[in-house]
Amino acid sequence: VQLQESGGGSVQTGGSLRLSCAVSRYTYSSYCMAWFRQAPGKEREGVAAISTGAGSTFYPGSVKGRFTMSQDNTKNTLYLQMNNLKPEDTAMYHCAAAFDFGLELGGCEYKYWGQGTQVTVSS
Q: Rounded CA gap, 1 and 122, in Å?
């Protein structure tokens, strides 16, 4: 399982970014794929997940309506479109894959992670 993020950067409040995650084909046999973020001194937070079987998507209230997760199977790539960004969205963003059910976002337990891409939102 391989995951590699790209697309992070610095934007001002209200701006947009689109993150990409290149995944190996085997990753599509996972139960869930997701995006997480972690800011210094804070716990990891799931911000978007997709159930690969049902195609359902999940978002926490903190990003719902602003973030959209999608996938392009022809390119083996996941995307996270982030609009109306706020300073509190500043974090390292990771894509992840799960092959087990669990209690994390989307009802899965994530064990495979990319190295992350930094997003910084200035006021």
A: 34
